[in-house]
Every structure is written in C-alpha cells, then in structure tokens.
C-alpha cells in the first residue's frame, strides 16, 4: 500500500487509497487552505511531536447523526439540574490547550502538538474552528473544540475537570448543532464513550457520501454564539 508524500499544493490522493489503518499521506503543512481541503475530503491530521504530519481517513469512521443522539438516563438529571453553564467560542485558546494537557489512557504524550495549536487557533480566527465551554461557579470545568464546514462538525478533542461536565456539554452542543441544521458529526475514532451517545461506525464510502451532502449546506457558517444553563 502506497503512502503518499504531500508537497506545496494543498491536494490529497483519493481517500480510498489509504492503508488498512487509514493512513493516507505524509508531509505538507497545516495551513488553513490545506486543512479545509482535508476536512472536506474526510481527512484529518494526527501525529506526535517529532513526527512529520500524518493524514488519516479511517475505514470505518465513527460518526453521529444529530437526530440519533442518545442521552443516558443517568445524565438527564444533570442536564436538568442547572449545575453548569455552557458557552460557545469564548475560550478557544484555553480549551485547546487543556485538551492538549489531558492525559489519555494508553496514550503517551499528546497529538495536539504546538504547531497544531497554532494552526487551529488560526482556523478559529477565520470562523472555521470552534470551541464549546462548560463552566461551574465561574471556573472552566470542561470543553471541546472542532471544525465546522457547511452542515458538518468535525469533533477534535474534549476535556473535563469535573465528572459529567464534558458529557453534559456534548449533549447540549449536539442539540444546538441539530437546531442549526447540522447533518453530520465526525467522531473520527471509535470509542465506547461516543457509542453510548448514539454514534455509529460508517463505512468510509457511506461517511463520505453523507459528508458531501452535508457540505452542500451552509448551516454552520454563521458566527457561533450561545450561553445557556445545563
């Protein structure tokens, strides 16, 4: 299986040409133009510090259709308690850095390396990358960030500093995205956590078909803004 090397032009090979693990290409840069091109093709960067940039397109692909969101009974009480406050795009820099510092099971270090942080902060300044924050008593206790194109949202990472904070945040954000007309949420890697919320694995071909349809919408292109109790 050929792994393609990228150069100056922000172009990618056919996602169907990736290796069995989903690795498609190596190299290139993290410019806004290349990142937008990648996401629109169902490709995302993921690599460790000291490694060249690696570009992935897994098969199958974990995704959540917003209308299929499942809310566990144990979380409904939290959502109705008014314990947390949710905001959008008020602390992007803090959220992405907290995600980078969060230790993950079976993971050494972080893939959110300094160059990734700078690249996504640039996307945020362009209105393409967004954050959702959850607060308690004025303290940031959870958050997530991702990329929005058309009617699709590509979740990148989340963190929590308090039990249930990120879960309540995720459910509230999905409901808000659905209200805005979002058709597809990309979860990238399969995890039991996301499966519990109704995400399911899609064959790459089916995922890309849904993505192409979602990109024909402009549902998520308007400025984001929300503050609500959860």
TrEMBL record:
Pfam families: Leu_Phe_trans. Its EC number is 2.3.2.6. SUPFAM superfamilies: Acyl-CoA N-acyltransferases (Nat). Keywords: Acyltransferase, Cytoplasm, Transferase. It catalyses: L-phenylalanyl-tRNA(Phe) + an N-terminal L-alpha-aminoacyl-[protein] = an N-terminal L-phenylalanyl-L-alpha-aminoacyl-[protein] + tRNA(Phe); N-terminal L-arginyl-[protein] + L-leucyl-tRNA(Leu) = N-terminal L-leucyl-L-arginyl-[protein] + tRNA(Leu) + H(+); N-terminal L-lysyl-[protein] + L-leucyl-tRNA(Leu) = N-terminal L-leucyl-L-lysyl-[protein] + tRNA(Leu) + H(+). Its main location: cytoplasm. This is Leucyl/phenylalanyl-tRNA--protein transferase. The gene is aat.
